[in-house]
Amino acid sequence: MSIRANVGKRDKYGTGVPLLDAARHPCDPNILYVVPVRAVDPCISTSYLAAAKLRVYGSDGDYVVEAVYGVHPTQEPHQGITQTSAGSVTFNPDRQHLREIEVDHEGRVYVLTSTIRQTEGASHPDHRGLVYDKNRGGVHVKDVRLEHPDLLSPTAMVLSPYTDQLYVATVMSTGVDLEGRTTEVYRYSVRDPNHMVFETCLSVQGPQPTVPEESLWKQGWYVSAITSMTVNPDDGTLYVTGFTAPKFTGAVWMEWEPTGLFTTPMLAIVEPDFVGTAVAEELNGPHLPLSMAWLDPDR
After folding, report:
1. CA 140 to CA 130: how far, in whole Å?
2. 108 and 88 in contact (C-beta within 8 Å)?
3. DSSP code at position 210
4. 93 with 69: CB under 8 angstroms?
5. CB within 10 Å: which end of the chain, N or C, has fewer?
């Protein structure tokens, strides 16, 4: 089996794919877990997307692949395959839309996959938490459907080793006043390796954004998004970043030439046992924060 990740070369299996997330091994700084990568099963003529464990060495970013997490969709256990009237093939469940990856101290790798499956005349959200044995790779050992009516296209995930809790954030909120400035984070317990139990939904209320062009603003409407989360491993404190912005009318790009970003960055600090709404403060510095990581001062 071979891996193609960001190599920028094309062969009969296609090119490498951009990496969306990476997680560091909790004890070995030379091991990195990444998602997604393009994998090739020599017994099947098509490639597929998976997660991978890399051992990085040298100063040039060279690496070797030590494990691949995931198998070709046709080799998944209990897999349903549907062909639409247009001739395309869909898988149920669909584990090919990999977004986030985390690893714990107990030897488990957590992968977030999220998509909306389209069938004849209907849409079906399919958000899953896949759990793998980090030493074995291959087929997942647990597949948990992340079912919640308000969990839409999750884009951020972080694991708290202090509390054995997994946080998943929804993609974006839009609405009038506080509704448009409030985004949700869903907290799951992973204390039991055989279960991923939903605990609660936390709300993050973003700051009031500046409206650069009143005439094109959809009065009273805002959008907000969580782009990244990280955790202090020593006490379980959750840090959430993202942005708020005014919602504009559909003709905004034809009538206005912005001179800069109109997003307001935010940072929320949430205690591990918190329940309710956390009020985020405006973040000084980046206008559009996309990623955040915890740096241990002792390492």
Report:
1. 6
2. no
3. P
4. no
5. C
Left (φ > 0), alpha (ψ -120 to 50) or beta: where does 53 sit?
beta
Buried b (16+ CB within 10 A) or exposed e, 196-212: bebeeebbbbbbebebb
pLDDT one-digit tens code per residue, 3-27:
554 333 444 545 678 889 999 888 8
Domain ranges of the chain: 1-145, 149-299
Q: How many alpha carbons fall within 13 Å on the CB side of residue 223?
A: 14
Residue 239's nearest CA partner among 289, 201, 294 is 294
Q: Is 131 exposed, middle or buried (0-12, 13-18, 19+ CB in 10 A)?
A: buried
Instruction: Give the contacts of 105 (CB within 8 A, at least 6 positions apart).
Output: 26, 27, 161
Dump the DSSP string for 29-50.
TTEEEEEEEEEE-TTSSSEEEE
Best CA proximity match to 113, nearest among 177, 70, 68:
70
Neighbour tally for 236: CB within 10 Å: 17
Looking at the DSSP assignment, which residues form a beta bridge with residue 158? 167
Contacts of 80 (CB under 8 A, 6+ apart): 91, 92, 93
How does strand 142-145 pair with strand 156-160?
unpaired
The residue behind tokens 């790798």 is: 109
Count CA atoms within 13 Å of residue 249 on its CB side: 12
DSSP code for 75: G
Q: Is the pLDDT of residue 268 over 90?
A: yes
Within a 13 Å sphere around the CA of 126, how many CA atoms are in the beta-carbon half? 20
Q: First and final CA of the chain: distance in angstroms?
A: 35
Alpha carbons within 13 A on the beta-carbon side of 94: 18
- Rounded to an integer, the average pLDDT of 95-117 is 87
Token pair belonging to 179: 């509704």
